[in-house]
Amino acid sequence: MEPVSGEARLLHIKAVAIRGASVYLHFDEIENKDEADSLAGAYINIRYDEILPVENNTFYHFEVIGFEVVTSKGEYVGAVRKVMDLPANDVLMIQGKDREYLIPVVKNVIKKVDRKNARIVIEPIEGLLD
Predict the structure, then answer these.
(1) Of 71, 57, 60, 85, whose CA–CA distance to 128 is shortest?
(2) Which domain holds residue 23?
(3) Calpha distance 85→39 (Å, rounded)
(4) 82 falls within a domain
(5) How many CB atoms lie within 10 A of CB 12?
(6) From CA 121, how far away is CA 113, in angstroms rounded?
(7) Is the pLDDT of residue 1 over 80?
(8) Would residue 130 count as lying in a domain?
(9) Which of 7, 19, 76 is nearest to 43 (CA)?
(10) Is this structure's pTM higher than 0.70?
(11) C-alpha to C-alpha distance for 72 and 109, rounded to whole angstroms
(12) Domain for residue 23, yes or no?
């Protein structure tokens, strides 16, 4: 756990509760509300080998930065520079050879997320790459 101001510290999760879009963590080392409140806005760092696996063709935002993006016909589109978390769906910001593309993360566009080869295969809808 890395507070907004102060030293990072190691905490152990005792329990997790999910309510709607919120996740509540109970740490062994936190004994009262004041201590818990002091962690508001803190960053949680998790080792890569400890993150939960995700389903096929889904991904954590951080892991696809730099992935190559190609069409289902093998045409190079560019590389993922950013993942934008928008209300309707996530959007990949792709830097192409001479322009930027915004690719919606929806089933009919994202066909394959290939972690082994750091590649995302898309089926561009009409006008997407124009």
Answers:
(1) 71
(2) 1-45
(3) 24
(4) yes
(5) 8
(6) 7
(7) no
(8) no
(9) 7
(10) yes
(11) 10
(12) yes
Phi then psi dihedrals of residue 102, to 5 deg: -115, 115
Q: Under 8 Å CB-to-CB from 18, ≥6 apart: which residues?
A: 24
Residue 55 one-letter amino acid: E
CATH number at residue 83: 2.30.30.240
Which residues contact residue 7 at a Cβ distance below 8 angstroms, ignoring those fewer than 6 apart? none
Q: Is 67 helix (H, G, I), strand (E, B) or coil?
A: coil
Residue 7 has pLDDT above 80, yes or no: no
Q: Note whether 68 and 114 are same-domain residues.
A: yes
Are 42 and 7 in contact by the 8 Å Cβ rule? The answer is no
Q: Does residue 52 sit within a domain?
A: no
Q: What is the pLDDT of residues 45-88, one digit of tens each?
A: 888 888 888 888 789 999 999 999 999 999 999 999 999 999 99
Total of domains in the chain? 2
